[in-house]
Amino acid sequence: MVQSLDVEAEKLSFASKKAMFRYLHLIIAKYHTQMLPPLSDADLRLLRVFQTIVESGGISRAQPVLNTSQSTISTQLANLEDRLGFKLCNRGRAGFSLTKRGRIVHDELKTLFSAIDDFRLRVSEGASAIEGELRLGLIEATISHPDLRFAEAVKQFRRRSEKSIIDLHIESIINLETMVLDGVLHLALSYCHHKLPSLIYREIFSERHFLYCGSGHPLFDESCSQKLADGIEKAKYVSRSYLEESAMPPHLSLQSAAKTDNIEGMAHLIKSGEYIAFLPDHFAQQWVELGEMRALLPETINHDAAFHLILARGNRLPSVANAFLEDFLNAHRLPIHRPKPI
Questions:
Q1: Which of 83, 76, 103, 78 minimizes the C-alpha distance to 36?
Q2: Are 46 and 76 in contact (CB under 8 A)?
């Protein structure tokens, strides 16, 4: 039965994708005198890039969401415009803005992607109410967080959905939002500094980050606050990404000398005794207790990061994801309600 359903889903998926491409092709052609070439999977990927650019407010702001360079995004956008045969947006010193045809394409993309998501939902619910694959995402280095009750939620979920399969992704901040947008994940938990209008964010808890150095660092044994403050500004700092910089204390001036896209990488560099970096206090505590790390001026140098549960706006969740959402909110003693779409 399951194998048969999978085969039918694959056939439907192929047929549905062809129908969606045809639909978008006709919509764009309605406003464009020259006949468009048939659209492909590659075109769909480029259209998702365009949608992200618009929702982010421009190419530079889309960079952290798409996790790629501005030049790559610009090339992808130019390739899409070449495929469609007209200009989608204006970019340059005057700022980012959509052309008339660009606005039409963006409006129709909402309908297209929503229809694709609805199709996925109908097929996934063909077997039973609470069965199927549950695709979840977590930001890395959360297992030591005292307020995270993910394990409790999973235990409760499994009691009423034994036939479901959990596909859990541990990712960086940058990847999680994109994976929810693309439908790769049903739900994700992360802290986010730039909220996208196409996603729903619900705050769950927060964590505090301190600035740490390792036991071999020149500042490790320093007790004078002024010398610490002066030394911090001269020390080699590990930056996590441009996302984190917006959340740093405004009075702090740091000299970036290394970078990494994950917390464990920062811990490795801190332990070398050569660098300083921000870490979540619960994650760093294990090395603090061993005498291998120290928080620098924690009373004044710190920042908080709020964790949010992330889901796609306007998309219906399958029953298996709705069930886990309820169990997750119950585990964190939060009321169960759906944020109203804009």
A1: 83
A2: yes
